[in-house]
Structure formats: structure tokens, C-alpha cells
Amino acid sequence: MTTGTAEFSKRLDQTAEDTEALLARLLSDATESDEIVRPKRLIEAMRYSSLGGGKRLRPFLVVESAAVFGVPREAALLAGAALECIHCYSLIHDDLPAMDNSDLRRGRPTLHKAYDDATAILAGDALLTIAFDIITRDAIHKDANVRLLLTRALARASGIGGMAGGQILDLAGEGRFGDREPVDVARLQQMKTGALLRFGCIAGAILGQSSQNEYQALDDYGKALGEAFQIADDLLDVEGDAAALGKPAGADAALGKTTFVTQLGIDGAKQRVRDLLARADAALSVFGTRGDVLRAAARFVAERKN
After folding, report:
1. pLDDT 10s per residue in the chain (306 long)?
2. CA dihedral of residues 205, 212, 143, 292 (deg, nearest 10)
3. Distance (Å, rounded) from C-alpha 264 to C-alpha 62?
4. Strand partners, 108
5. Is 211 left (phi over 0), alpha (psi -120 to 50) or beta?
6. What are the helix (H) ranges across the chain?
7. Parallel, antiparallel, or unpaired: how do β-strands 104-105 and 108-109 relate?
8. Distance CA 267, CA 251 (A)
9. Cα–Cα distance between 163 and 44 in angstroms, integer?
10. CATH code, domain with 52
11. What is the DSSP annotation of 66-132?
């Protein structure tokens, strides 16, 4: 293990630990001002799907992109927790019978299996909503305009032109609404998976009130990393095993999804990942050694086994 890889692993684990503790506090049964009560079943369901698992890659990207500009870690962790709430909500809804109909997530029953469909829908709704409660908090940044820019960026990454829009394009490609619709895999990836990962990268630039050049560098890096993540995911669906993945392998093929692997082949997809790593590395050159942990993150994404 190289020094850079060792430092990356240490920082990833620390961010995961810190994010877990922060989410546990944010998703406690203690009410905030203007809240009336936090129903026990709803909070339990939200915690079930948000705590005790996951690499916390998205909060890590927020923390490390912000660290490039010397942003206080506590502020970046809070923004990262908001992003993670969006991610966890998306997993809950993706797993529902009307969507991907998955029974297993992170090696245990999906939320609708552990509870029921109605509770899963509402837990997802509540996680989506609390994300915007968190991202607007004064503790993230003293400048309200910075918080506004963060909130807008998160909304756009999550919504019509981002993750939610990508999800419906994915379903249309499966033929859920009639005949299968042609799928532009690169565009689909940019929306469904890549938009939240890209937000994790540009969030640091927003928090750090970066120059336009620095913002563009992290934007380019985030786009390359997001596509590499999706291709690695597509490869794992073909080559991985369920025990390592914590969910059934081969799900994409079973649903007839168009993926990078179906379009490029396994060898072509692996070459595309190598090209994307080179793009990510080039984008970070503006930061010199300050970008080393983010470089390691791109390699981690490309080489992950689950």
C-alpha cells in the first residue's frame, strides 16, 4: 500500500465514522424548533437505512474537496451529511417494488422488506426533506449566499435534471412505460449516479469560495469520477459476487438495462475507466499535492470491489 493510498484509506474511514456520528445526532428523536414530534416508526426507519453501513464516499468527497480550500471540517461534514441523506433516500426508493424491486441492500433486508412500502416511501421523503434543512443551517457557512448556492446545487443534482430525472430515463430504457426507449448511457449516468458525486466535489469549491478555474477543475474531476464510478458499478454487476456487493449480482441484466458494459463490452469499459482516471488526474493538477487524496479517491472508485 502506497503512502497516498494509506492516507486515503485512513481519511475515508475517519469521515465515515464522523458522518455516522453526525447522522445519528441529526436523526435522533429529539425535535428541532418548529417541529411538533418525530414519530418513532419514521425515525427508526430513517435510521435503519442511514446508519450502520456504507463507505460514505459522497460525504468524503465534500470533506476532501473542501479541505483543499481550508474549509473547517465541521462545516464540510454537515454539508456531507445533507448529501448522504439524499443518497440514502434514493436507495430506499430505488429498492421499492415499483422501481428496482430489491430485497437486499448492504447485506440486509431493504427497508420496505424490513418494514413496509408505506413506511419506506415516507422515510425516503423525510430524508430528502431533512437534507435541505441541514444544508441551509448557519453552521455550514456564515455567508447566506454560500448556503444558497449550496442548496441550489444540491437541489439540481437531486431533481429533474439530476438524479430523479436519470431514474425515470433508466426506467424508460427498461420499457416500463411501453416500448423500450433508446438510452444515452453517458447522459443517464451523469444524471442518475454522477450528479450527486459531482455535487460532492463542487460543494468544496462553493464552501471555499474558490476561483472559477478551481471550481471548473473540481467540476471536471467530479464528472470523470462519477462516470468511472458507474462503469465500475456496471462491471461489478457482471463480475462481482453477491456476498461482496451486499446485494444481488446480475440485477442489471435481469432487468434488461442498457449499461456501459452492454455498450462497450467488458474490455472497452475497463479502458474507459483508465481514460477517466487520467482525466480526473489532469483536472486536479491545478491543486498540486493538495489534490493527492482526491486522486486516490478516483483510483478507489475505479478499483472498488463492492
Report:
1. 454 677 899 999 999 999 999 999 999 999 999 999 999 999 999 999 999 978 999 999 999 999 999 999 999 999 999 999 999 999 999 999 999 899 999 889 999 999 999 999 999 999 999 999 999 999 999 999 999 999 999 999 999 999 999 999 999 998 999 999 988 999 999 999 999 999 999 999 999 999 999 999 999 999 999 999 999 989 998 886 544 545 455 565 555 677 889 888 999 999 999 999 999 999 999 999 999 999 999 999 988 877
2. 20
3. 31
4. 105
5. beta
6. 3-26, 40-50, 57-67, 73-95, 111-114, 117-135, 144-158, 163-174, 185-192, 194-207, 212-239, 242-245, 251-255, 260-283, 292-303
7. antiparallel
8. 20
9. 25
10. 1.10.600.10
11. HHTTT--HHHHHHHHHHHHHHHHHHHHHHHSTTTT--SEETTEE-HHHHS-HHHHHHHHHHHHHHHH
pTM: 0.92
Question: What's the number of CA atoms in the CB half-sphere (13 Å) around residue 73?
Answer: 7
Q: At 11, which amino acid appears? A: R
Beta-bridged to residue 109, according to DSSP, are: 104
If you count them, how many residues does the chain have? 306
| Placement of cell 448556503 in the chain | 147
In the chain, the amino acid numbered 42 is: L
Phi–psi pair at 276, nearest 5 degrees: -70, -35
Euclidean distance between the first and the last CA atom of the chain, given in angstroms as a whole number? 19
Count of domains forming the chain = 1
Number of C-beta neighbours around residue 209 at 10 A: 15
Cell of 222: 467530479
CA–CA separation, 152 vs 168, rounded Å? Answer: 21
Which residues form the domain of 140? 1-303
